[in-house]
Amino acid sequence: xxxQNVVASDEKSAVDIRIRFLLPKSLFSPDGPxxxxxxxxxxxxxxxxxxxAAAKTNAWVNSMxxxxxxxxxxxxxxxxxEEKNSWIQMNHPSALSMFEQIVNASKGKQIVMFLDYDxxxxxxxxxxxxxFMTNEMREAVRDVARYFPTAIVTGRCRDKxxxxxxxxxxxxxxxxxxxxxxxxxxxxxxxxQQALLFQPASKFLxxxxxxxxxxxxxxxxxxxxxxxxxKFCVSVHFRCVEEKMWAALAEQVRSALxxxxxxxxxxxxxxxxxxxxxxxxxxxxxxFLLESLGYANSNDVLPVYIGDDxxxxxxxxxxxxxxxxxxxxxxxFPKETNASYSxxxxxxxxxxxxxxxxxxxxxxGRACRV
Length: 370
Ligand SMILES: [Mg+2]
Description:
By secondary structure, this protein is α/β, with parallel strands linked by helices. The protein contains ten helices and twelve strands. The longest helix has 24 residues, at 346-369. The site of magnesium ion has 8 residues, from loops.
C-alpha cells in the first residue's frame, strides 16, 4: 500500500461537466498527429454560479447527447465520412494497424494493461445488469493477464464487474478507482504480497446510499431510467430513456444533488454518475496502481489504457502528461480525446489483446531459444 494524497475538493459546484478540447499527440511520431480537422465537436461547457437551473439542465442534456451517440448513421454524408477517416488516420490511428509500432515501443519495458469494462470489454446493452462479456473476450483478457499486470478500471461497483469478468488474476478498480483490490491469487510481478485494498472515499458510503434512494424515488417518473448503486458512486443509466425525456431526467438528478454539495456529477456513455467531490478518478487509480506495482518513477514501463468513455479521459490525460504509455479510445465516432489511438468496438479490443498475447508468446519463445 502506498501513501496517496487524497485531498478533499474545494469545489462548491456539484456539477463537473467539462468537455475539454485537447489536441492529441502521438507517442511514436516526433511530429505527432495533426489537430482535428473539423472541430465541430469541440465544445466547452462550463456551469457556474451565475447559470440558471434551466441553463444547467440544458447544458447537461447537450452534454448527454455529445457523450451518448445512439447509432451509426446508415448513410453518412461525404464530409462526415471524410471527417471520420481523417480522425482515424491522422489523429487517432487504429491500434491494430499500428500494432508493430506499439510493440516496438514496448521493447525493454513492462506493459501494464488497464481496461475499462462497459463499451470496451462488453457491448453497451439496454440493461446494464446484462452487460456480459463473451467467453472469447474473457479468454483474451485472461491470456493478457498471464503475461502483463492487468487491471479492470470501471465506474461499476467492484463486486459487480467481478461478477461479469470472473477472473481472479486481475486488479479491479471499481467505482471509478475509488475501490481498488489486487489479484486474489499471487502474481509473480506483484511486489507487495499483501492483498491490495484501497478505498479513498469510504467516509462517503452512507451519503452515497442515501442519495441513491433519493434518486430511485425521483427518477420513478422517467420511463427507462435505471439507478445503480456502485458503492462509492451512483449511476443513473439513460440507455432506455427516450431522448425527449432526457431534460426531465437531468432536472430530477440536478434537484437531488442540490441537497448534496459534497457530491458531484460526471457523465459517461448513456449514464449520469454521481460521485464524491474528492480528487480521485480513473487517472488517479492508474497512477496508484503503477506505484503499487513499483513503477511510480520508472521508465521501464509502458502502461496501456483502453476505454470508451469520457471518464476514461482522466486516465488518457495522465498518460499524456507522463509522456509514457498509450491511451486507446474505443469509438466508432470522431470524439475529442486525449487518447493517441483508437479501436472501433469491443471486437477490435479482443483482436488487439489476442495479438498482444501472440506477440508476447513469440517473443518469449525466441528469448528461450537464445
Ligand atoms: Mg466504458
